[in-house]
Specification:
By secondary structure, the protein is an alpha/beta fold. The chain has one domain (about 1-150, about 200-300): Metallo-beta-lactamase, Chain A, CATH 3.60.15. It contains ten helices and 16 strands. A seven-stranded mixed beta sheet has the order 6-5-4-3-2-1-16. Strands 7-8-9-12-13-14-15 form a seven-stranded mixed beta sheet. α7 (about 215-220) packs across α9 and α9 (about 245-255) packs across α10. The longest helix has 11 residues, at about 70-80. The termini are close together. The mean pLDDT is about 95.
Length: about 300
């Protein structure tokens, strides 16, 4: 699991920081969280092509988080992309892409699917799964938890049979960590038929948000929490009014969620030297650093 910061600025880009975008590579597949303007160029600088297998997860519909999508889709078209592209995000995303973006360009030569999501499981594949939870911003915003690898635990067939679970699709549901309901109305939980779970590697990305208990729950036990820390604590009233977090808020989330590492992003342009933000957060959560564009973090299973 390789995590690359493509953009870490808030609102407007700076010479040092592009607009919000986090790229994760898992066994050759790409997952992009947010797509600020200029993201496609940052991907190229980081050595990633635009025609690879990829899914995009958007936190919310403010321009600095989505205005990179039209250009990226257009460039993929010009490059004759073959692989399908799936884009996930809150309500309104479908209209933005299909009626605002695609309508101004030629039809994509590749399959483009848009999914409007809510809390809970957003995506589950063979390599990873993604869960969403609402943050607290000036408009609907979704934070994401990405789990790579791991398993709910070793399946115990004898226990399943003893509980009256017939072999077949219901076994598969339990193996995947989902509860089931039998014909007689009894509910069987995965823990009833599984051994000790094997933890995967966990990345949580907050998007823009005030302090949110939802995000604390979502981030619990994460290896990396990428949380906005737009402003220093001296501007906490303004941050609260605008729906953003100070560095202290981000550090508080990291501490309460017991994460292993906090990366501050969405940095205001008023801080050309962001060490003041890092120092402030470290007083609460020592394992903090400020994001730097094109920096790479690797998480090994």
């Amino acid at each position: 699991m390789k995590v690359t910061v493509l953009g870490s600025a808030a609102g407007v880009p700076t010479p040092e920081r592009g607009l919000p975008a986090i790229l994760v590579e898992v066994e050759g597949e790409l997952v992009l969280f947010d797509c600020g303007e200029g993201t496609q160029r940052q991907m190229m600088k980081a050595g990633y092509g635009l025609c690879r297998r990829m899914r995009i997860f958007v936190t919310h519909l403010h321009g600095d988080h989505i205005f990179g999508l039209p250009g990226m889709i257009q460039t993929m078209n010009l490059l004759n992309r073959i692989h399908p592209l799936e884009v996930y995000g809150p309500p309104g995303l479908k209209e933005f892409i299909e009626e605002t973006t695609v309508a101004t360009m030629s039809e994509p030569v590749f399959d483009l699917s848009v999914y409007e999501v809510s809390e809970g499981e957003v995506f589950r594949g063979r390599r990873y799964r993604i869960e969403g939870a609402w943050g607290d911003h000036s408009r609907a915003t979704m934070a994401y938890r990405m789990v790579v690898g791991g398993s709910p635990g070793r399946f115990r067939p004898r226990r399943a049979r003893a509980l009256g679970v017939p072999e077949g699709p219901l076994w598969s549901e339990l193996k995947s960590g989902r509860r089931i309901t039998l014909r007689d109305g009894r509910v069987v939980e995965p823990k009833d038929v599984l051994g000790e779970p094997v933890p995967g590697k966990i990345l949580v990305y907050s998007g823009d948000t005030r302090f949110s208990p939802n995000i604390v729950r979502l981030a619990t036990g994460a290896d990396i929490l990428i949380h906005e820390g737009t402003l220093a604590s001296g501007l906490k009233d303004w941050a609260e009014m605008e729906g953003h977090s100070t560095t202290e808020v981000a550090a508080r989330v990291a501490k309460e969620a017991k994460v292993k590492r906090l990366i501050l992003t969405h940095i205001s342009a008023r801080y050309p030297d962001a060490r003041v933000l890092e120092d402030e957060a470290r007083k609460i959560f020592p394992r903090t650093e400020v994001a730097q564009d094109l920096k790479v973090y690797e998480l090994k299973s």
